[in-house]
Write a structure and sequence with these properties.
Length: 429
């Protein structure tokens, strides 16, 4: 007797939802062979039934309410690709679990805010939640961490996880354009989320980092503890000067377990221009995983878009069709530790840019502030003069973030600064 199909209830028929419909329809035979059983869509939901979606949805039942969809008896797996960390996405996911359905979601915001509660509910109810598409789109990074690297103690997780920010930063660099101009370009190209601060404020990437950290370190998702700084203050001057010193600026996420607790930060950083992260162009994502046995793994690929994101969702669905059932964050939810949030204290070299009054002793005063904070200078350049002002660039040897903050606060009292100094961490990658 042929194996029973796995039946999807699909909530959301936007970019990702239609990508899923296309894969299910185009690769029905391939998927059935690989999964050992057919995978079909039985019912769908979106807000506007009349919208033209360039897809044949005629074989699927329509539900106006995603909660009702999630509870249908002809649905085995509820696929949530609506978005939003509360509202219908949360209500329908909870309803699906209670109704005995497994859940596959691309929704990083939902899991960053409610991941622990949902994972506990799923396990209590004997259900599974999968979310490969939520982090780095088409890159199978969740699978790499939970399965391929399961034998490793993870030392550090790092990466560029928001394609829009990487597009903006690389376009600023390659075209020499200021942030505001490129932000507007990104908006015209449809790259920005409906609320752009999710992208440029680092929030979307922070959501993703917090999910990776939970798996990597066996801790409860703690998005609120991520140190977040977006790219809105990255100037074209810093992009140019960093390039001149052999670096690129990236919105870089780093999570690592230290003796003080779990450090999670998503901030603009300099990385060497010739490193894999430095070479990353446009909307591409890159995740670097470091395990004690394996060393360093670099995963690179499309972090968004219809095909890549639907590919990741369907990978999860096919796992469920095959009978692969893992805890949401790799270990049972009730064994996830409550992390102690540690502010970033790991020393690193820093890039410091400042505009000084071009007069005798000005630079000496800055050097004194650094010396008094125990910070040693590695490289220094002065860039011309504008009237009586000069731009000075300093790259320090490794320094603790607090010492850098102390030194730069001290600059203000020297009376030689023209405007606020810029300090950007240089990440060793
Ligand atoms: P989208 O294009 O805006 O589509 C959202 C879909 O959800 C639309 O079909 C919308 O219906 C439907 N929807 C919204 N609210 C609903 C409600 N209350 N009831 C029923 N349906 C509702 O979004 P998307 O880009 O596909 O993203 C979906 C999810 O995937 C999000 O969580 C996003 O963060 C995640 N994700 C997206 C990408 C990507 O590249 N796009 C990558 C990774 C992860 P209407 O069409 O009728 O308005
Ligand atoms: N806004 C996100 C990005 C979409 O630019 O990477 C994929 O999560």
């Amino acid at each position: 007797m042929p194996a029973a199909p796995l039946r999807i209830g699909l909530a959301g028929l936007g970019t990702v939802g239609i990508g899923i419909v296309q894969i299910v329809q185009r690769h029905a035979d391939l998927i059935a062979t690989r999964a050992g059983r057919p995978v079909i869509i039985t019912a769908v939901s979106a807000r506007d039934r009349k919208k033209n979606r360039d897809a044949d949805l005629s074989a699927y039942a329509w539900e106006a309410d995603p909660v009702t969809l999630a509870q249908r008896p002809d649905v085995d797996v509820f696929v949530e690709v609506m978005g939003g960390h509360d509202g219908p996405a949360k209500a329908a996911t909870e309803a699906a679990l209670v109704a005995g359905k497994d859940v596959v979601t691309a929704n990083k915001a939902l899991l960053a805010h409610h991941g622990q509660a949902l994972a506990e509910a799923a396990e209590t109810l004997g259900r599974v939640i999968r979310f490969e598409a939520a982090v780095a789109g088409g890159i199978p990074v969740i699978k790499a961490l939970t399965e391929g690297l399961a034998a490793n103690r993870i030392k550090r997780v790092m990466g560029v996880m928001n394609g829009t920010c990487n597009y903006i930063l690389t376009r600023m660099q390659s075209a020499g354009l200021p942030y505001d101009t490129v932000f507007e370009e990104a908006r015209q190209l449809g790259y920005l989320e409906a609320d752009p601060t999710l992208d440029v404020g680092g929030i979307d990437a922070g959501h993703k980092l917090s999910l990776l950290a939970a798996i990597a370190f066996g801790t409860k998702v703690s998005f609120d503890a991520v140190e977040l700084e977006g790219i809105g203050n990255v100037s074209i001057d810093d992009i140019r000067l960093a390039q001149d010193m052999g670096y690129r600026i990236k919105l870089l996420g780093v999570a690592q377990m230290t003796g003080r607790g779990l450090e999670q930060r998503m901030t603009p950083c300099l990385v060497p221009a010739d490193s894999p992260l430095g070479q990353l162009q446009g909307g591409t994502n890159m995740v670097v995983l470091e395990g004690d046995a394996v060393g360093q793994i670099v995963l690179r690929g499309p972090g968004a878009g219809m095909g890549p994101t639907a590919s990741a969702v369907m990978g999860d669905v096919i796992d469920l069709a095959r009978g692969l059932r893992l805890p949401t964050f790799g270990i049972p939810a009730n064994q996830l530790a409550t992390p102690i949030a540690a502010r970033s204290a790991t020393p690193a070299p820093y890039y410091l840019r400042m505009t000084l009054l071009d007069k005798p002793g000005a630079l000496a005063k800055i050097a004194t502030c650094l010396g008094e904070a125990g910070i040693s200078i590695d490289q220094m350049r002065q860039y011309g003069h504008v009237g009586i002002h000069a731009t000075v660039l300093i790259v320090t040897h490794k320094a603790a973030p607090d010492d850098i903050a102390h030194a730069t606060a001290g600059f203000a009292a020297t009376g030689v600064l023209v405007d606020a100094p810029v300090a950007i961490r240089i990440e060793e990658v």
